[in-house]
Specification:
It contains 12 helices and no strands. By secondary structure, it is mainly alpha-helical. The protein has a domain of 171 residues: MetI-like (MetI-like fold). The two termini are 34 Å apart.
């Protein structure tokens, strides 16, 4: 390898390293300060303590917020998968009037500012006389996450060889057996990936949640309320826990979902 190519490779590697450092530095800082001994965050931090983790999980508001966030994420992702998978398959398999417009409108929840989207959801919820609660938060999150599942399904099915389904049916398999034995193994990775992405988005969603939440606050709302008073390593500790949960999800997908994508 020539010197020029080596320098080029080193430059590209250094650039990628700087980009990754820029992206993940906030998460690293939060993790480091969660181990700080003192209540005041200064540099360099006094490390080697897990007391803030115990204090975070001894805080009833933090624990309740984390539990509520987990419930909202699980239920809203479940609703998104149940509705999004058949919707994605319908978009891929059928041609209907307004199909292109429908596909483009799916991105609208992500393109709209959270303030406008949250205010719109609140108006609709109040028009139907729903009481603000975790259920209204679940509805708000599910309306956003359905788009992720539909888009993921449409992308996977668009590049998938449909002749496999036809071959299975020619061999005597009905539509149900064809789905579970032929279609499902090919879309499983997309569903897992969309679900994990949905959980990460739901756990972090604040703007829309602030409009439709009732008396049961989710974790981002609890943290936001705490930040109005002071910033302590206790908040960093609970943030690190959520970050670890997200990383575990990525590892699970890389172990099971990536293998499915490789087979495709």
């Amino acid at each position: 390898m020539s010197v020029r190519k080596r320098l080029g490779s080193l430059g590209i590697g250094a650039g990628i390293g700087l980009i990754l450092l820029f992206l993940y530095m906030p998460a690293i800082v939060i993790g480091v300060y969660s181990l700080n001994k003192g209540s005041v965050m200064g540099w360099p931090p006094e490390l080697a303590t897990l007391s803030w983790y115990s204090k975070a999980f001894a805080n009833p508001a933090m624990v309740e917020g984390l539990k509520n966030s987990a419930i909202v994420a699980a239920v809203s992702v479940g609703i998104a998968v149940i509705l999004g998978v058949p919707a994605g398959m319908g978009v891929d398999r059928f041609h209907f009037f307004g199909k292109t417009a429908f596909q483009r409108l799916l991105m609208l929840p992500f393109l709209m500012p959270g303030l406008i989207s949250g205010l719109t959801l609140l108006t609709v919820i109040l028009d139907f006389h729903f009481k603000l609660s975790l259920m209204t938060v679940i509805i708000a999150h599910a309306t956003m996450l359905i788009a992720i599942v539909v888009i993921q399904m449409a992308v996977v099915l668009d590049r998938w060889n449909r002749s496999l389904e036809l071959a299975a049916q020619d061999l005597g398999a009905n539509e149900i057996r064809t789905f579970f034995y032929v279609t499902w193994p090919n879309i499983r990775a997309a569903i897992v990936g969309a679900s994990l992405l949905g959980v990460a988005i739901s756990l972090d969603e604040t703007a829309r949640t602030a409009f439709v939440v009732g008396e049961q606050d989710t974790l981002p709302i609890v943290v936001l309320s705490s930040l109005r008073r002071t910033l302590t390593p206790e908040i960093n500790a609970i943030g690190t826990v959520v970050l670890v949960i997200s990383l575990v999800g990525v590892v699970i997908w890389s172990k099971f979902g990536a293998a499915d994508l490789a087979r495709e």
